[in-house]
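debug: dumping io for the single-chain case to check the tokenizer round-trip. Nothing else runs in this session.
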Amino acid sequence: MVRDLGMATLVMTKGEPRGTTMSEGWAVLKLSTRPMGGPSRLVHLNRMASLVTWALQARRLRPSIISGHDLLGLLIAWMSTWFVSKNRRPLLVYDSHEFTIALASRRTRWLVRRLESFLMRRCVFSIMVNDGIAERVQQIHSLAEKPVVVRNIPSLWVVDEQKCAQRRADFCRELGLPLDVFLVMYHGVVVPNRGVEVSIRALVGRESVALVVMGDGDPEYLRRLRRLTDELGVGDRVLFHDAVPLEVLGEYAGAADAGMVIVRADTESNYLMLPNKFFENVQSLTPVIASDFPEIGSLVRKYDIGLLVDPDDVSQVGEAIDRLRSDPALRSRLRKNLDIAKAELCWEKEKAGLEIAYSRILREFRD
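debug: decoded output
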């Protein structure tokens, strides 16, 4: 998007320092997070040194605009402006991918809150991933303007139905189940509180339903999940599958009858979630069973593309599966609505708000 506005862009990220290289059409400069090297006991010293070395490198580049990704990136961006005259100082943009304050521990929340408030007031604009988080951040920091909302939405996908059918056949063959089994899928990082355990428990007593858990996770947690499937007697209807590249995710997600997006509200950040997997299911034309939370719930209701549940209530999750499985007319209606939602909930539409925000500051900068 920024290149469409005539901006040359360089991405600074962590990695083995090799100078500026090209990656997927982007200029990338990798910097070490351990500039002092040494043993693990120097980890805190390395972190402090990294802030300084990264800020100095950013200053040497003499950019016109720095977009700080999340709070640490913004801190580095601001540090790079120290002792730089006002007329040469780059404009700062805060691109927050999370509800940062809600994710902080109780011990550090006061510091995160003060730091975020201080830094946001030095930005020309800030970006949040949904309206709920933007409104909360505006309220917490008493901001005059609501941050720009840019949701993390993929580009419009073209999904091959034949490939989806082949993936479905592969899943069923691995499970040893017929093709007409009702297939639900969780895809994403496999960690606690994402609804995987509830999805497994919802299989009990539903012999015509199977679950695909697709994603990488901590080996110990994956072992715990496998033990749970054995204890509940549903191990023959749960398939654990490695994560797949984003480029082919649509044909895997599109092989399922329902996508499970039932994150628990263990933090305010999760309560206000609007995760990638929701939009990826939309782009795959897969109806969702989702947590009845403000952000995701409003979109499910607006477009009528799935069913909403209490993510902690196994019976509700099971009933939603039953309803989708037993009602062909419902599935047909949701599928038609997904066609509409897919055309609207894509990056080609979503980027407009970001283009407007950057165009405004570019006009001011060039004037």
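debug: round-trip ok. The chain has two domains: 3-153+348-366, 161-345.
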